[in-house]
Design brief:
InterPro entries: CcoP_N, CcoP_N_sf, Cyt_c-like_dom, Cyt_c-like_dom_sf, Cyt_C_IC, Cyt_c_oxidase_cbb3_su3, Cytochrome_c_Oxidase_Subunit. It comes from Shewanella intestini. C-type cytochrome. Part of the cbb3-type cytochrome c oxidase complex. The protein is mainly alpha-helical and about 325 residues long. It folds into 3 domains: about 70 residues, no CATH class; about 100 residues, Cytochrome Bc1 Complex, Chain D, domain 2, CATH 1.10.760; about 90 residues, Cytochrome Bc1 Complex, Chain D, domain 2, CATH 1.10.760. Helix content is about 50%, strand content about 5%. It contains 13 helices and 4 strands. The strands form 2 sheets. Strands 1-2 form a two-stranded antiparallel ribbon. A hairpin with a 2-residue loop joins strand 1 and strand 2. Helix 6 crosses helix 13, helix 8 crosses helix 13 and helix 9 crosses helix 10.
Length: about 325
């Protein structure tokens, strides 16, 4: 943190605290020239103002609060980059990657200065690791029948996956719906676990990297609409079939049913990751699409991924 931001935090904080002290002391003195309990000469709607001091209990409580605040700021971080007399931290600072986080935790362990977060994680691991180890030892085919395991998987999903796929797992534009039974990379238990463990990188280059002119886009779009079983312009779709045969079939298949080994979408199932409107389909063909899901094996570990995999599978396999 720069000196400017240190000053920006420290000065206003201390000014407010000592300003409160000044106001409290000033209000505790009778500088009005009027005896306590006497009228101040002001009245409104039959209510007369008297020269009464602040209640002692209120003043003492305020002094205690101020002293507590100063002690807290001395012991714990709160004033800019000042670390506090205890050197306490809520988390590892300046961590920008998973590797940095692990290195910071190991260094903190070696120096016996674990942050509160690290201590809570260590405590949770000691309590829950045996449970997750038992889940990992259970085949996925059996785990999907365990209601308690699925509840755990659901909570892990909400914590780590719902930001992209939604709390109901139905996704949104660019993020797959995990509850509809349509899978780019296969919907078997092993496929789902591999997707979560290793992540996925999906990429279709503009026009599939094929020699397709812009003038062919409308026809190709119409042919894709035809493949999905929707109403279409037969003549325009027939033109688009020729464009499709220039190479689109290499990934999506001759019948448009896709290829799970490549993550090439099935164009016949009515599931659209980037929208089903003709404009959306044409934009996907013309500009290409790039999608990435990070690998979770280093973030959550296989034990938790194992449980999440069972939960995700259960969403479309009741």
């Amino acid at each position: 943190m720069s000196n400017f931001w240190n000053i920006w935090i420290i000065v206003p904080t201390l000014l407010v605290i000592f300003g409160c002290v000044f106001i409290l002391i000033a209000c505790s003195k009778n500088n009005t020239g009027i005896d306590e309990g006497k009228s101040m000469g002001h009245s409104f709607d039959g209510i007369e103002e008297l020269n009464n001091p602040l209640p002692k209990w209120w003043s003492y409580m305020f002094y205690v609060t101020i002293v507590f605040g100063l002690i807290y700021l001395a012991l714990y971080p709160g004033l800019g980059s000042y670390k506090g007399l205890f050197g306490w931290t809520s988390s590892n600072q300046s961590v920008v990657s998973n590797e940095d986080s692990k290195a910071a935790v190991e260094a903190a362990k070696a120096e016996d200065r674990l942050s509160q977060y690290d201590r809570e994680v260590a405590k949770a691991d000691a309590k829950y690791k045996p449970i997750f180890a038992a889940y990992l030892a259970t085949p996925l085919e059996e785990l999907v029948k365990d209601k308690e395991a699925l509840k755990v998987g659901g909570r892990l999903f909400l914590q780590n996956c719902s930001q992209c796929h939604g709390s109901d797992a139905r996704g949104s534009i660019g993020f797959p719906n995990l509850a509809d039974g349509n899978w780019l990379y296969g919907g078997e238990l092993a496929d789902i676990k591999k997707s979560i463990m290793d992540g996925r990188n999906g990429m279709m280059p503009p026009k599939g990297g094929l020699p397709i002119d812009d003038s062919e886009l409308k026809g190709l779009t119409e042919y894709v609409v035809k493949l999905s079983g929707r109403e279409h312009d037969a003549a325009l779709a027939a033109q688009g079939q020729g464009s499709y045969m220039k190479g689109c079939f290499a990934c999506h298949g001759m019948d448009g049913s896709g290829n799970k080994f490549m993550g090439a979408p099935n164009l016949t199932d009515g599931a659209w990751l980037y929208g089903s409107h003709r404009d959306d389909i044409e934009a996907s063909i013309k500009n290409g699409r790039t999608g990435m899901m990070p690998a979770w094996k280093e973030i959550l570990g296989e034990e938790k991924v194992h449980v999440i995999s069972a939960y995700v599978y259960s969403l479309s396999n009741k």
